[in-house]
Every structure is written in structure tokens, then in C-alpha cells.
Amino acid sequence: MKISKKRVVLFLLFIFPLICFLLLSTGTNNFTKLPIVTNNVIDISTIDSTKTFKGHISIVCFLGNDLKANKGGFFNLNEKIYKKFIEYKKFQIIAIYPKGKEVEAQELKKEIGAFTDMVKWNFIEGTQEEITSLYTSFNSPDSLTNLYSNNVFLVDKNGNLRGREKDEDTINGKLFGYNVKSVAELNAKLKDDVKVLYYEYYAAFKDKNKNKADR
Predict the structure, then answer these.
(1) Residue 186 sits in a domain of what CATH number?
(2) Whole-number Å distance between alpha carbons of 13 and 50
(3) What is the pLDDT of residues 121-141, one digit of tens each?
(4) Could you tell me if 36 and 161 are in contact, meaning their C-beta atoms sit under 8 angstroms apart?
């Protein structure tokens, strides 16, 4: 039977996507999970007892001693990531600054908040020892300079650092953090990875409910 051009178009537009959806939805966790690159980082509650990584998807950034010089990257983070996920449940940004920099931190918060609801931005002060210990627990190969890092870090609900193990732009393929000075990296990597992590939790929740229903 001769297949008309119209039927081919209909197949590509409607039937093929439906088949793909059904294959994905009937499988159990048949997608690539976001790798854990470091297990059990130090919890933020050791610096601020009112905050925790547990039960949240957290993006952690280290503001450093010169907040004015470094603030451009955090505006990128706000525009490209925070505003995309502000409505997502249990999403938060942890912005850590050194003690003695409260005024600069509040100025940065005010500037970012001029056109943003800051409800999920958490500015936390810490001593040099506390900040260094937290950063060290991430096991990142990049150093913390003047208590500042170009990179921000993605911590899951269990307090594990997530990243990539086959990143084409790193020497050994292992990506621990995402460069806030690169809009392209925030768009192409961090945004996608946060979505993957949320879908991972959604799929796990769906499977859990399915298993309960099957009993």
C-alpha cells in the first residue's frame, strides 16, 4: 500500500511522539540520573541552624570578601536559574558570605531583589573556618579564593553533591560546579541538571506509588 505524504506527516507529528511517550512512561527509571560526585557534604545547618540541605534542592554559592567585584555572576544566576525554578517545591539558593560583610551582602540582596521575589534566596554569614570547611567537603578540584568561587554547586535532598561525570569541557570529565560567569553554562548545564534532578525525584515518587498500588 502506498503511503501518502500526508500520512507520513501525521505519523511524525502525532503517532511517533505518542509512542515515545508510552515507552518512557511504562519504564521504571529508564532515564539517566544525575550523578552524585560527592556524598554527604557538610550540612548548612552547621553554619545556620535554621537552614538545611536535607529535603531541599539547593544551589550553593560562595560570595567571598569582595562582593561588589563578584556580583555580576550572581545576577546571572538569578536571571537564568532562580527565576526559572522559583515556583518549584523545595528549591532554594544558599548564598554564603564572610562575617563582617553583612552590609555588602544586604546591598547585593537589595539589588537582586529590585525585580525579584527573594523568598528562596538565603543569605547566610559564616566564619572563615566554617566557609572553608563546607567548601572542602564538596571535594571540588577548584580552589576557594578569598572565600569566593566562580562556581555554584547543586546539592540534593539527601545532602549529596550532584554534577556530571562525562562533561566534555572538563579535563577528566567530572563536573563539580557550574560557572556563574558563563551564561551559556548556566543555560546549557545547570538549568538542565536541575530539571533532571527534579524529574528523578518525580519518577521515584511515581514508582513508589505504583508499587503501593500493586500490593
Answers:
(1) 3.40.30.10
(2) 50
(3) 999 999 999 999 999 999 999
(4) yes
* Pairing verdict, β 91-98 and 121-126: parallel
- Predicted confidence at residue 206, as pLDDT, reads 72
- What number of residues does the chain have? 215
Angle in degrees, 0-180, between the axes of helices 102-112 and 67-77, rounded to the nearest 10? 30
What is the C-alpha to C-alpha distance for residues 191 and 81, in angstroms, rounded to an integer?
Answer: 6
**Do 21 and 67 lie in a common domain?**
no
Choose among 149, 119, 116, 115: nearest CA to 134.
Answer: 149
**At residue 213, does pLDDT exceed 80?**
no
Residue whose C-alpha is closest to residue 151's, from 64, 23, 47: 64
Q: Which domain holds residue 3?
A: 1-28
Amino acid at 102: E
